[in-house]
Write a structure and sequence with these properties.
Rossmann fold, DNA polymerase, domain 1, 3-stranded antiparallel sheet, DNA-binding, 4-stranded parallel sheet
Length: 887
DNA sequence: CGGCGGTACTG
DNA sequence: CAGTAC
DNA sequence: GCCG
């Protein structure tokens, strides 16, 4: 069950709940029995899981890692395949092959010497250097035009250039039919909205094409998509992947109409019979537009007479009648909202819909205060509908910008209110203290049980984030960073109080403990790693969240706005059309990084405390373990969710923001380490390289500076050992072992491996036979033999490529962006109704719906000669070649 | 503790 | 079959 | 070396 399904069901249940829920009801639903001692209630609550846990999504149903790492389907049009036959490989039988973009991001292309032909052609010499390692290598401007004769270039011993092949290879990203308007646009993650566009009117849910066999599209689908150029075609593997994705993502992100309509079902507006026409019209205007059928249904079913009233008026009335309302509420309803002065924004400032009124009632019923007008001095929380429109909200509040909301006031959605009951520790129903104005306060009492209990979802702050109404304010409502220095985390109260976090506890590097904690690259060098540290992440630190919110792309959601149904409209998009980008934004990140670097020290020292506690064993330690696990999970889910929220097309943001990542130094070190292993022959080393690759990728895309062992460990693909290494790098700025291991042999071997057709075995053999340089190899020193393709690989060690002159723009784009960038660009083009390949940007290509590979129509080329032109049409800001690295 | 992509091509 | 590429 |  998706978050939203759960939410709407839950909302309906709660709104329809009896005014005075009886004890059994509470006990059943919340594991809360007023007559019981809180502890007992709690134990019941956790051990017996009174809420059907299986039904309740613990976390957002968003998981990017899978899709990021998953195999992505790429189809290679058969007509282009024969070109590749010049070298070693060709694929005759299969026109499809799987590509894992995350692994295959390095620019290795096939060599196709015979493709050098072409009358008017421009030859682009590629500087040597790994595309992903060395952005500078992409400084190929038109100046580097020249014949491919300077192939002798690769003298540089360090450079391990990937071979850039002069292949005109077309890979067409296949993706499900484009979602109109909103939805996820991450290329690897993209799925259709759950509802077919037509299902809205018919009320029938039609399977998305993800659910079909991709090769057997339904006629309706076919005709519907006739004008589109994107198509779904998956290998069996990719099929599985996407299918499972559909379940997750599509339900979590239903089409635009899905949410409002289903909510309208649960809370049908009830216009009075007398003024049915007027109120009907207004009801339609209220909240979000609803399908006609709904409106009709409403008119018929309307029974309760509700007068027209604005939300403000309604709230005011509730305020006025507070005493009597309170009197009726007094008895049993758990006043878990007590002290919360909520400004509720329902979307329409003219008309308080049934839903709005019910919600306001609910707030009152559970002890909260509904504040009629937005007044930052008074309110403690802003609660909105699930998908509030910022402009409407600003209009209703009279604010100019969301930033004008004081930071201490969180903007959360209604789901936050609904979810609140179960994360709040059940207390005696009539709670005397009104002091608790923040959810976090509910966790303040340091009881291990409470930690356990609140852990059904990790922290209070988690809720503020997950239910945040506006992504721009994701960290709103968090305590300001300075203030939480002294605030001891619930997990570590006593100890840290004794020796405070500020105590400068230098990390004592323990010498290696046992063999299991050592890492061996060669038999001569053993990596002594420090014993693992344990840290409880401080999630109160809003900088972490704030930075996430800022995200790799800044505050906005790039790309989203530029994608429209009509490709033409995007022509108007200018690359500089992002209006109010905070010019200071770059500095924020730096400042935050700096402060986080400081925090690292104190953070690490305080970890010792918790480590000690764990060592003490006992129940406390157990609690620790649990909370640690949850912390871990939280980081996973949270990061995924946030990244999903803020990520647009990868190609929309510049490479700097990716490559100059917060942990670049760590990445560099790990990469060095990876190279060391890469030169080794053992299977073990092979897998280590594999693992390092994954870890490095994960680290690259991690938006914030890693601050401690735990944080690193939480990243998927980074385990104990790597996290330890990361910690060492963070602390000492170095991995000492790299120095030991980086020896001549390794470098030579890795250099040889840069030759197409040469892998570990061959490279090692050559070295063993006395070869040290490429010249040695050319001289066949030691009697080594080269296969045909290795000879060619050697010859073309420096890469070059030829493209027809008129396609130079598209080709430049194609060859200067890495795989990821290119895929992203193509996907965006597809979604906009274009088709992009290395020859140009095409419009109006029609494909055979039953055979997506077959073009029924060649389309017209609309741009190819300059990169600028293409990027402009695609609404992608100009980026220098070196900025186009996303891998 | 086993799996980590599966397949096509060269030699 | 091993080695390599994708 | 990570993950299940």
């Amino acid at each position: 069950m998706s978050d939203l399904e759960w939410f709407f069901r839950e909302e309906k249940r709660i709104l329809d709940m009896p005014e005075e829920p009886d004890e059994d009801y509470l006990a059943r639903v919340y594991g809360y029995r007023p007559s019981e001692d809180a502890t007992v209630a709690h134990e019941r609550g956790t051990s017996e899981a009174p809420i059907k846990d299986a039904d309740r999504p613990r976390e957002l149903n968003v998981d990017m890692s899978e899709s990021l790492n998953e195999v992505q389907k790429v189809t290679v049009p058969p007509e282009d395949l024969h070109i590749n036959q010049g070298m070693t490989t060709k694929r005759k039988s299969s026109t499809e092959r799987t590509v894992d973009p995350s692994v295959r991001h390095s620019k290795k292309r096939r060599l196709s010497p015979e493709h050098k032909k072409g009358s008017a052609s421009v030859t682009l010499a590629h500087a040597t250097g790994s595309a992903s390692d060395n952005p500078d290598s992409h400084e190929l401007h038109q100046t580097s035009v020249g014949p491919p004769t300077d192939a002798a270039g690769p003298q540089s011993p360090v450079a391990r250039p990937p071979i850039q092949q002069p292949v005109v290879k077309e890979t067409t990203i296949t993706s499900p039919a484009p979602d109109k308007g909103k939805a996820r646009e991450h290329e690897a993650n993209h799925v259709d909205p759950p509802l077919h566009p037509y299902s809205k009117s018919t009320g029938r849910i039609i399977a998305t094409n993800n659910d079909k066999q991709p090769d057997v599209p339904s006629p309706q689908q076919a005709s519907d998509d006739a004008t589109r150029t994107t198509h779904a075609r998956y290998s069996s593997h990719a099929k599985r992947t996407v299918k499972s994705k559909v379940i997750e993502v599509s339900t979590a992100n239903p089409g635009p109409a899905a949410a409002p309509s289903s909510s309208s079902v649960t809370t049908p507006a009830a216009p009075g019979p007398s003024s049915s026409k007027v109120s009907g019209a207004r009801a339609k205007k209220a909240e979000e537009p609803k399908p006609k059928t709904d409106a009709l249904k409403k008119e018929k079913s309307g029974k309760k007479k509700r007068e027209l009233i604005t939300p403000r008026e309604y709230a005011q009335r509730l305020q006025d009648n507070l005493s009597e309302v309170a009197a009726t509420r007094k008895s049993r309803a758990s006043p878990y909202l007590r002290g919360k002065r909520i400004y509720y924004h329902g979307g329409d400032m003219q008309y308080a819909s049934e839903e709005t009124r019910k919600r306001m009632d609910y707030i009152i019923r559970y002890g909260g205060t509904v504040v009629p007008t937005y007044d930052p001095e008074v309110i403690t929380h802003i609660v909105t509908t699930e998908k509030p429109s910022a402009p409407a909200f600003l209009r209703a509040t009279g604010l100019r910008s969301l930033r004008d909301i004081p930071n201490h006031i969180p903007t959360v959605t209604w789901s936050w209110v609904i979810r609140a009951p179960r994360r709040v520790i059940p207390e005696t129903p009539v709670e005397k203290g009104g002091e608790s104005t923040d959810v976090a306060d509910n966790n303040k009492g340091d009881k291990t049980e409470q930690i356990e209990d609140s852990s059904s979802e990790p922290t209070a702050d988690y809720h503020l984030i997950v239910h945040a109404a506006f992504k721009d304010r994701l960290d709103a409502g968090m305590p300001p960073p300075p203030s939480n220095k002294g605030r001891s985390k619930p997990q570590q109260s006593a100890t840290s109080a004794a020796s405070g976090p500020s105590r400068p506890t230098p990390q004592e590097p323990k010498s290696g403990r046992d063999g299991s904690d050592t890492s061996i690259i060669s038999e001569f060098t053993v990596d002594r790693v420090e014993s693992k540290q344990s840290a409880i992440l401080d999630f109160d630190d809003s900088s972490f969240l704030g930075k996430l919110a800022a995200g790799p792309n800044g505050a906005g959601v790039p790309g989203r706005a530029t994608v429209t149904d009509n490709p033409k409209s995007s022509l108007n998009n200018k690359s500089d059309s992002t209006p109010e980008v905070d010019s200071l934004a770059p500095f924020y990140n730096q400042a935050r990084a700096e402060r986080e670097a400081e925090d690292l020290r104190s953070g690490l020292s305080s970890e010792e405390e918790s480590a000690k506690e764990i060592g003490n064993g006992g129940k406390r330690a157990a609690t620790h373990a649990v909370s640690k696990k949850r912390v871990r999970r939280f980081v996973h889910v949270f990061c995924r969710a946030i990244l999903t929220l803020i990520q647009g097309f990868l190609c929309d943001s510049k490479a700097e923001e990716h490559t100059a990542c917060a942990n670049q130094d760590v990445v560099n070190k790990l990469q060095e380490l990876r190279e060391l292993h890469k030169a080794k022959l053992s299977k073990e080393d092979t897998w280590k390289v594999y693992t390092y690759d994954k870890a490095i990728r994960a680290l690259r895309s991690y938006p914030t500076r890693i601050r401690c062992y735990e944080e690193a460990l939480a990243i998927p693909g980074i385990g104990d050992k790597t996290a330890q290494k990361i910690t060492e790098i963070l602390q000492t700025g170095d991995l000492r072992r790299i120095g030991y291991e980086k020896t001549e042999d390794i470098e030579a071997i890795n250099m040889f491996q840069g030759i197409y057709g040469v892998g570990r075995q061959t490279a090692y053999k050559w070295y063993a036979n006395g070869c040290r340089t490429l010249d040695d190899v050319r001289a066949r020193k030691g009697g080594i033999k080269l296969s045909t393709c290795q000879e060619i690989g050697l010859e073309y060690y420096a890469d070059f490529l030829t493209v027809p002159y008129e396609s130079r723009g598209a080709a430049l784009l194609y060859y200067t962006g890495d795989d990821i960038f290119n895929r992203s660009l193509r996907l965006k083009a597809n979604k906009m109704g274009y088709s992009l390949n290395q020859r140009g940007l095409y419009q109006g290509i029609v494909r055979n719906p039953s055979n997506k590979l077959e073009k029924l129509n060649e389309g017209t080329i609309i741009a190819s000669e300059t990169e600028e032109e293409i990027l402009r049409i695609l609404g992608v800001p100009w980026q220098e070649p070196h900025e186009r690295i996303r891998g």
